[in-house]
Amino acid sequence: MRSHFSRPAFFEGVRDMTPALIGIVPFGMVCGIGAIAAGISPLATLAMSAIMFSGAAQIIAAQLLAAGAPLPVILLSCLVVGLRFLVYSAAMAPYLRRLSHTWRNALSFVLTDQAFASTIHRFRESDDLRANASYFLGGGALLWVIWQVATLAGILVGQVIPASWQLEFVVPLCFLAVLAPLLRDRVTFLVVIAAGAAAIVLDQMPMRLSMICAGLIGIATGALVDTIRRQRE
Amino acid sequence: MSKEATIWLVICVVGAINYIARLSFIALFARRDMPPLLDRALKHVPAAMLTAIVVPAVVFTSPGVLQLGPGNAKLVAAAVALAVAAWSRSTTLTIIIGMTVLWLAQYAVR
Asked: Which of A86, A184, A194, B52 could join A215 via S-S bond, C-beta 3.0 to 4.6 A?
């Protein structure tokens, strides 16, 4: 592990990740607030952030648990949102092949949407594996630490604010902020329409299966439209 | 199974699933490429799943009661929040304005 560690690159990674915290801190707080609103204990809420380390999966688990969905439905829904990590993993893999197993295992743990988005360009531009790996580890480690702090802040806020303030509404608001810039793409717009319509039509499905089914319909719509477009070109 | 036991089970299993997905191409099958159709489908996971979470939280005023008009304070707040998000690209501003509109709209509806 040590042979690939570069301290300056690690701290460069930490420094370059700081602007991303503007988005991460409110999202982490939302995860804390959402879990507390769903009746999950503070300790379990912190464990969600430390171990699952995925805002979308944490929110889904909290909401489905509060709605009384059975365990397999919760796991299946979380599995689908976790599939995006396959994409990031596949995109990073060619750059990390020469690293030791310890390094690859460590870097995989801190592979998140933000860590991927803000470091992949560096991997594409530079061949210095030692510096790149340390840079990624620095950014990823900062995100993990801040994610825990933000969740803790959310837990505290969630316990103090009365339920009548409907603080759980910060969850859809936070996701709308993520969705809005994606809507400029036409295929993504169709994905959102399909998933949204399905979520309304399928709402009465048993065991809260509507969320996962609406998501899958949206994903299938996107893949279908992409395939048709590709054949036309 | 109690709710607390269920959540701990979810934390462990989903934590393991997420880690395996993150490890997948980096460590487990480093020599393989992603199948193209899978790649195309997975690209749409974030937009589809976020929508599947947001829409029910906004259009139903209580379980099973669909309300798609200005009488639904959550829908009004979400519409304003979406506009703010598209314009500002700020999560914090979207949340602050969205919550403010929700409270005002609820007050107005009453």
From this structure: B52
> How high is the ipTM of this complex?
0.90
Alpha carbon B81 to its chain centroid, in Å, reads 14
Same domain? B23 vs B56: no
Residue type, A176: L
Whether residues B102 and A196 touch (CB distance < 8 A) is answered with no
B11 within 8 A of A48, measured Cβ to Cβ: yes
pTM of the model: 0.85
* CA-based nearest residue to A216, from A228, A202, A230, A231: A202
Give the domain range for residue B77.
45-109
**Could you tell me which residues are beta bridge partners of residue B62?**
B65
Residues A127 and A156: beta-carbon distance below 8 Å: no
Give, in order, the Cα–Cα distances in Å from B44 to each of A12, A53, A178, A192, B21. 32, 21, 13, 9, 17
- pLDDT in the model for residue B27: 87
Residues B63 and B95 in one domain: yes
> Same domain, yes or no, for B21 and B68?
no
Residues of A with Cβ-Cβ distance to B45 under 8 angstroms:
80-81, 83-84, 87, 215, 219
Asked whether A40 and A52 are in contact (CB, 8 A), the reply is no
> For chain A, which residues score pLDDT lower than 70?
1-2
Interface of A with B in 11-50 (CB under 8 A): 22-23, 26-27, 30, 39-41, 44, 47-48
Running along chain B, 110 residues long, what does each successive block of 10 average in pLDDT? 90 96 88 82 89 94 89 96 93 93 86
